Amino acid sequence: MIKIIKLTALLLLAALSSVYGQEGWFVITTRGDRLAWVEADELSPSGDLIKIKKGNRYGLMDQNGNIVLKAKYEAIKGYSNGLAAVRHKGNYGFVSEKGYMVIDAIYDDATGFTEDGVAAVQKLGRWGFIDRYGKLFIDYIYAEASPFKGGYSVVRKRFDKTVGMINKDNKFVIRSDTYMNLAFPQEGMVAARIRGTGKWGFVDTRGTTIVSHKYKTAYSYSEGLAFVAEEYKFGAIDKTGNMVIDATYSDVKREGFNSGLAAVRSGGKWGFINKSGEVVIPFEYDDCSSFSQGSAAVLQDGYWGYIDTNGEMMIPFEFELATGFFRVKDQLVAIAKESPIPPPMDDIDDEESLIEDEEAMVVDEVIEEEEEEEMLLDEGEEEGEMVEETYEDEEEMYEEEPEEIKEDGELQVTKPGKDKTKGKGKGKGKKPKPSTKPQNDTTVEIDENAPAGIRFIEQMHGVEQAISDSRMAYNASLMYLNAGHADIDAFEQNARVARSKMNTALLKIRKATQQMNKAKTTSASMDCASANQLFREANSDLLDASELLETSSDLLNDTVSKSGLKAYSKSIEKVTDRLHDVEHNLRQATKALANCN
Fold it and tell me: What residue numbers bound the domain in which 548 lies?
């Protein structure tokens, strides 16, 4: 029996190690709605679909997480016009959305089909082009070739070091003996790096020089302007080559302007400028994407979120990675990686790390059970009696029915099946008690003699941090669930609704705080009634979240094994503690607004 327990412990530790390696990814809308949650090593845009990587294999899915092609291919290069270029058994071919190999896998390499309906393919070291039926469109004569875009392809002849640009008739529109690099035409202009000096300039689609080749770096035109750098600082020129935005930026995003804004870097931080060179969104981000469809992904304090063109938060900062928005089947979506955040550790009693200690707890539990077993055997107890006792405890665990959440947000009762968990049940644990005082240092001392608006703003300094801590602790508990410690549908539903309520509350709090900050720095009068209403609504959402998470804690006590229980319940307790701190701060904040007119 002891050997069996030891073996079980080793298998459990191996399983825990395996599941912790899995990654969680979201497909989200511009409103922050989650269309899908996917376990994968990587998700990325791929033409009209989303590429999914699991291990060393690739597949395709739609925006709702529905698998279109199973992750069984060695590589995938885009999906367009109903076909995807895939590598299977070492060679490239093209498969349909149904998974049929429409064009045989006979190519050494290939690109995906583009809107032009042409793909570049390689055989025996030479590149040519085929149409959607696999018919050879342009013979295998090039050493390198890009897919066609807008009717043009950049190619390199055999034995040449320079490149040229051809049209669909295989005619050179830009000669092949002049340029080291060519970009695709944007707004009728082609960024070109000339042979000899290695400098960049711009030519038209006939190869005529429009902007002289004098730049160390040059990116394509967008909305009438192009970013260039003569040395190590970037500025922007118009189509005549005039510098309209001074070269003062250490870096820029090569996509340039979109929605009238461009991402530029200054002082080690990223922000956004308009086409007049005015700073519209301050330099406060560690990284960002260019704007796409009116939104941009931005990185702040280690987490990605999304802002609109006014710099206001659209989706909270809670992701490890994030892409800009793109279209999948006419729906605007983005891909974001779930943040594996550990629980806040600032005031946990004697436990140094829940995640680090979890495997140790499993081992300790096994050792304790072994010692208990040996004592019973020494006293003459039979192993059969121990097994019966285990089953009796397990049955007692299901005598009370835990609660879960309905879609409308009301609590309901459900009884999990016995196959949901294994091991001894310990009955209901203690529900986290609401705090009457803040339990951390997020409470702000207010100068009662200061104006009401200033007192209110000072109070907000602690509120957002407490909200952030709450969401971080929740993410930790969700990480435990995703890692496979237990299959608890009720907990998952309660916790996800609680997360949504916390996110909603945070958006309301930040919106109200922005109103107050604008009033503090401008002559505008403060809309106290509006801000107060936002905070009252936020407080209601947080109270609901607190109740839901307390219910989740009870569910965990009912359904999780002893080893997982400590980590789960501690994480949930941290969430509810943080929420009680927030409630206290919000009450103080609304008091500060009471006399605001």
Answer: 400-593
